[in-house]
Structures are given as C-alpha cells and as structure tokens.
Amino acid sequence: MTFPFRAEGPLDFSADLPEAADLAIIGGGIIGICTALFAARAGMSVVVLEKGRVAGEQSSRNWGWIRVQGRDLAEIPIALESQDLWKTLDSEAQGRLGLRQSGVTYLARKPKQMAEYRVWLDRAAAFGVSSHLMDHEVMMERLGQPTTPWIGALHTPTDMQAEPWVAVPELARMAEDAGAVIVESCAVRGLDIEAGQVTGVLTEAGRIKAGRVVLAGGSWSSLFLRRHGVDIPQLSVRSTVLATKPLAQVLSTAAVDDRLAMRPRDDGGYTLAPAAFGELFLGPDTLRHLRRYLPLAMSGEFDVHLKRPAPRGYPDAFSTPRRWSEDQQSPFERMRVLDPAPNGAKVTEVKRRFAQTYPQLGDVQTQTAWAGMIDVLPDVVPVVDHVSALPGLIVATGMCGHGFGIGPAFGRILADMAQGKEPGHDLSRFALARFSDGSRLRPGPNL
User: Fold this and answer.
1) Cα–Cα distance between 151 and 157 in angstroms, integer?
2) What is the pTM of this model?
3) What is the pLDDT of residue 1?
4) Is 169 inside any structural domain?
C-alpha cells in the first residue's frame, strides 16, 4: 500500500461546470462530499468545487476512526447517527467503503486517567453508548498481551474504522450517481453577493449561480471567510501518521494511550500515530488568535509544538495574500493540495514505541508515512452554522480531527439546512457567534 493521493495525473472527477445549481459546495473533503450526497438524494441540483483533488487533504490523511467514544456531549447524538449512516452507506456500496466494527479503546497508565474516563462515561450514558470500563485482565486479553503497563481502559465495542483514502472517493462516486456534479481542480475565488445576499460563487473557471452555498474548506475556510469580512479563530496543526508493512495481527481494536495511537488494517499492517502530538506553524493568524488558544495551551492536555513560520503557500503563511480580486489567481490555486511532509523523528519514535509494546511482532517496518493539516478551533468543537453576515452561506469547518467519522451525519445535517429544514439535532454548541458574542468557550474533552 502506498499513500494513494495523486496531485498530478488525470482527474477522477471532471464534470462540466454548470451555470447554476441549487447548492454549491466549496470543498471536496468528507463533509462536502457527504453534504452533496444527501442534498442530491433530496432532489437538489448540487455542484462540489474542489481546488485540488477529492479527499486530497485531511479527509484522506486521518486515522480512519469512526468513534463515539470520548466525544463532546453535543457531538454524541450526531456521531451515533453518523455510525448508522456509515453502515447504511457501506451496505449500499456493497462493502466498498471498507467499514469494520473493531471498537475503540482508550488506555490508562494512571488512576487519574481511569477517573476521567469514568466521568465521561457517566455523562455519556444517557445517550445509550455501548462504552464501558475494562479492568487490567480483560484489557490485556483484548489488546494481545502488550508489554506496556496500562492499568485499565475505556472501550466502545460499536465504534468502527474505515480506510479514508478508499471511503471518501467512493462516497463521491455515490454522490455522482445521485446526480451531484463534482469538479476537481476548480478553485472558488469568492462569493457572488447581490444586495447583501449570497447568490453563488466565483470560480477560476467562471461564475455559478446558487441559492445556497456551503463552505467546507477545512484548513482553508478561515482564509476564505476573512476575504468576506468574517473572522473565525481557526488554525491548523500538522499531524504525522504512518502505515507499517504487514505484521502478525495481535491487536483487534483501534487503541490509544497518551503517546501512541494504533489501528489494525485489512491489509495486515497497522496505522500508527503519536497520540495528541501536533505542530503549529507560526503565521499571522497564529499571532492574532493566540489569546484565544492560551487556556487550551496552558491546560497541558494537548501536546502542540510551535514551529518555524508556515511554509510558503500555506493558509497562514506570512506571504499568503489575505485579499485578492475575483479576476486574480487566488491562494487556493497557488496551492492545490496542502501536502505537509511528515515529522521523520516522530515516525521513528512511534514505530519504536509500537515495537516495544509488541516485541512479539519482531521488526516493525514502515510502508509509508504522511502528514495532514487538522483544522482546529480553541474549544475543540467545529462550527456548523448559517453565517448571519452573509445570508445564503452555511459554514462547516474546524472539525478538530473528528470530521472523518462524523462526516456522514454532518453532511445530512448540512443538506437539510440548505433546504431550510431543521437539522434534527441541537447545534447551539457549534454556533459561529460564540466567537464574537462574549460567550465563554468551553473546551471539549481531550479523550
């Protein structure tokens, strides 16, 4: 297996650009694609506009977990719906999404961690989650007799996994079959606005009229919004991941402790990552929003390291333009795919930790390693809301590493919002206004 994204070569989705649509979606990641799928099935004419390739960025670079465990309480009902949708969609795709119910296990080294798991479990129990605490003996059996001295765990047997680079393009093909138009290598430079109302989008290939627009641009969303006078404190952190070559399958569940995340794959290898480790490249938005992130940074719950200035072309690079006209090349065209290099030292460290945990596996060899930029917000939950300053625009961004698993449900929600329907869940936790109305931000659980 090699990392499957191709920056060059023939496009996978190259439909002709329509003159108009009921709904225009900016971004071809998991959120945008699922929104297109459900909107098209509801009878809307839909166009997805992706500056690079479908799932070319974080939607294909994540761990592949589809979990309820450890989520913010406001996300749990949506995550539960998403798991039901994953199962339905995988059945419709005749298993091509690669879905597997393997469970998710959070491992504890200290009694304090077990106490934190119990607090979350007590609060989440009202939603009917399958999660439960495991003692040392049960945990050791489920995890294949590791050598690390974990004392217990929180386990959710109904949590699932899928291969992101397989599942998201397959969902895009399902959206096309439902009637959605998907266009790769077509950047949206800005919104078409008439009398204060969003009436479409301005792309590098021309104008598209649309009654509703959904922005699901991941790490690029805040840059796009700021051009239109909407400021959100979104940043992006680099996350490193690796895939091993095939090994004995001693681990049957996705699992994570404070240092190492691991997941068995269908090809016989494992996907590994440093658990809470992220790298934040310095840029103008980092400096502007630092105050909002200080409480999170000072909590010590996230292992985030400040790095050198963001590389040229990144959304928060000092050289990236914040303003451009509709007839100028935009930053989205200058960098079609945000493709950060993995942290080589972390790849070595993670592989070593995994080998120490399971010495019976012998030599652990890297098949491939990659990195992605995770779009984050200071309270570790996303924005999913209408933009009151720009009627006709809905934004869904800042998924904070949760987007892959919860994508189908948020896609269904956004499709309903675009049709003027009620979303079916309380979305007040994800309101855009929380960053401007003086609300006290409540960070979600770091579990």
Assistant:
1) 19
2) 0.97
3) 39
4) yes
